[in-house]
Amino acid sequence: MKVQCDVCAAEAASVFCCADEAALCDACDRRVHRANKLAGKHWRFSLLHPSPSSSSSSSSAQKPPLCDICQERRGFLFCKEDRAILCWECDVPVHTASEMTRRHSRFLLTGVHLSSAPVDSPVSSEENQEENSSGSPRNADPCSGGAGATTASASDGSSISEYLTKTLPGWHVEDFLVDSASAGIADCSGGLYQVMVSIHNNQLYRHIEQPGWRLSWNWAGKEVIWATTGAEATEQGDCSRIGAAKPPHCCEPRPVIVDLPPGTPYNQQVANCCRGGVLSSLTQNNMTSTAAFQMTVGEFAYAKDHNGSSKGPEKPWDFNIGVPGYTCSNATEVPATRFKVDKQRHVQVLLTWQVTCSYSQYRESASPSCCVSLSAFYNSTIVACPQCSCGCQWSPPAPQCVSGSDRSTALALPHGDDEPAAPIVRCTDHMCPVRVHWHVKVNYREYWRVKVTISNYNLVRNYTDWNLVMQHPNLRSLTQLFSFNYQPLIEYGTYNDTAMFWGVKHYNEMLLQDGNVQTEMILKKNESDFTFSGGWAFPRRVYFDGHECVMPPPDQYPLLPNRASATRRSLISGPCLLLLIVFVLV
């Protein structure tokens, strides 16, 4: 690799001047250092370019270093702040991620050595004789302090040279300055722009499970994605039209971007990335309800205003989050995002586009996925889930079901990781993968106790980070809860009738196949409205993982014993009265 002349910026440099802190070619060196006697006294060292034979020697000290990120390509530059050697392909996404990373001091790894002795001054013979007679000392090196120096320090100090001298003996560094991201790839005629994409799940009780989100859109022109950080495109596409030494990351007219899995190397991540596409609900964990990735886009189309002048890149269209039940709007321009780079300074991006994706349970599935059963201590009858709540057995909308003897076969059925497995449930009357059972357990003087059981009848799926939402007027008086987390969901002042429950981390946060999780809650009675009659003690609505569950009809709720006794007495009193009347007439 050659060093460019700092004066003409056209020829390869052959000497390095310590006084000018510049590399010069032969022609510029003669012109600059023959200008006067003072310039002719500058100490200059020859630049010794590595030969192919020396670079292929067995000595590991002379071999080019590898990139610290990919560990495959030759190191191209050194970042002072990151203390890392990077190749060109890894440097572009890392140092264009934000305003702060763009300010990093980077040094080019040229592989060029400095000569051990300074070169002769390019002055005339008369001047040379006069200079020799003046007795100017040449036994000191004003650049590095000694004639045997093999590295030249950058203009901002010698710490970087000292570090590289120890880790990369015999290698020289030069300043590497990039004014903008478009300076990175010179053969991209359409220019470049950096995009930071953030996905925020603003839903209180609905999360996105595996296989996660798959964001896609249509480009307005012939855009290509040169690099991504924190995510990757599923297909590279046909990049034959791009005349570059290394093809872009994706040339598809409709790219599909997926999140990187957990455990991705840290230097390939951005903030809020690499969770396998899983997004928590806002109530459960607002720290993991956001995903993000960065990409470098080239060959983009320019948008035109009403005057015909360019106003930035054209908006992509037809967005899709890749999760069943969601539909997305077109991109809308909103006020540009501002973010903080230090304690005092804020920077603003050029453009911000916003896409809103809404959810509908009916778009996701034609049939429900959960049901509710009820029971109470004062009645021996158990009100089961309504028949065919999620479809009838062997009907098209219903999931496939197996009996007890066929469960081992169902568990052995293969399914890919990219697509969720089709539900295979136990054969029941309701045919739902999930059942929620509400049992009124105990009645105290001032409190009452409820037991809730969530059963997973799906034989091929575990529900990770599940949540349960229930609506009941007495939830505002919830006193104690066991084994679950709890958060009021909708509050109107001091009134709350909706609560969200989810599992305790590392204990019951996962609802296993053909398993169940349970909790008990103690609620304080409100004298104004508490009663066991009329089905008041049972929930109004129940949601599991954001899906509304099928409730039994109210006329089937467990009845109080005293009401049943009153009915039997009324049926018996009729014949007695009739017999009495007959007896009197006789």
Describe the structure.
Helix content is 14%, strand content 31%. With 586 residues, the chain is α+β, with helices and mostly antiparallel strands. The longest helix has 25 residues, at 561-585.
Describe the structure concisely.
This protein is of the alpha+beta class.
Please describe the topology of this protein:
Blueprint: E1 15-17, E2 22-24, H1 26-33, H2 37-40, E3 44-48, H3 52-55, E4 77-79, E5 84-86, H4 88-94, H5 99-102, E6 106-109, E7 113-118, H6 125-134, H7 159-167, E8 173-176, E9 192-200, E10 214-218, E11 224-229, E12 231-233, E13 256-259, E14 290-298, E15 302-304, E16 310-313, E17 317-320, E18 326-328, E19 332-334, E20 338-340, E21 346-348, E22 352-354, E23 357-359, H8 361-364, E24 370-376, E25 379-383, E26 400-402, H9 407-411, E27 424-426, E28 434-443, E29 447-456, E30 463-464, E31 467-471, E32 478-481, E33 484-492, E34 495-503, E35 510-511, E36 516-524, E37 541-544, E38 547-548, H10 561-585
Parallel strand pairs: 24-28, 26-27
Antiparallel strand pairs: 1-2, 1-3, 3-7, 4-5, 4-6, 6-8, 9-14, 10-13, 10-17, 11-14, 12-13, 15-16, 18-23, 19-22, 20-21, 24-25, 28-29, 29-36, 30-35, 31-34, 31-37, 32-36, 33-34, 37-38
